[in-house]
Amino acid sequence: MQKLKNSAVGFLVSFLGSIPLGYLNVIGFQVFQKSGMLPTVLFVLGVICVESVVIYFTVLFVKKLAANIKLTKYIKGFSVLFMFVLAALFYFGSNSKTNYATSFHYAPFVLGIVSSCLNFIQIPFWTGWNLYLLNENYIEVTKSRIYFYVIGTNIGTFCGMMTLILALHYFTSNVDFISKYLMNYIIPSIFLGIGVVQGIKFWRTYRL
Q1: Core-most of 2, 49, 100, 141, by most CB within 10 Å?
Q2: What does the DSSP assignment read for 95-109?
Q3: Which residues contact 165 (CB under 8 A, 6 or more apart)?
Q4: All residues at 6 or more sequence positions from 55 whose CB lies less than 8 Å from its CB, including other chains
Q5: Taking residues 124-130, what's their average pLDDT?
Q6: CB under 8 Å to 79, separation ≥6 — which residues?
Q7: Model-level pTM greater than 0.90?
Q8: In sequence order, which ranges of the chain are alpha helices (DSSP H)?
Q9: HSE-up of 6 (CA within 13 Å, CB side)?
């Protein structure tokens, strides 16, 4: 029963965490637009491979990571900067007709691995969630139970990313406004907004 609960909790957290628009979903959307379903699935599987490692080790070392305030500060600070860099890259890239899925000349699976390795914000995200879930006894990670939790998160990430990618495809295919401005203005504006919000939170947390 606990193994099933681990998988269900992992699925829910990961699915909801994958739904908001992030740069992994944007690149996955570009892969889908260029190459179709199978390469997109391979891209998402590449993302999941890296995320599995991150989740597994953050569960094992969650208390040490949470106690390392200096490391957490650096990761969060870099994540804020990364959002502004992404906003600039997608804005200027869209104006120059750059597609990041096509500019990376490797298999979609490798693209997923590389892109996920650059997703530094997943470390504080999973550290925070895993610490909360463990402290509140929502999950139990002794022996093989940890693997059921990781598998649940993997399935949640896959379903969440594919849901958003297909939703973006649907809306860009049927709504002219989104099709025209998604890559040029909407996505860069979202990343800029996320960067501003995260920057304010970072300043409020570490200003003292």
Answers
A1: 141
A2: HTT--HHHHS-S-HH
A3: 25, 28, 29, 32, 40, 44
A4: 126, 130, 149, 150, 153
A5: 83
A6: 120, 121, 124, 198
A7: no
A8: 2-18, 23-35, 37-60, 62-67, 69-95, 100-103, 108-117, 122-135, 145-174, 176-181, 187-206
A9: 19
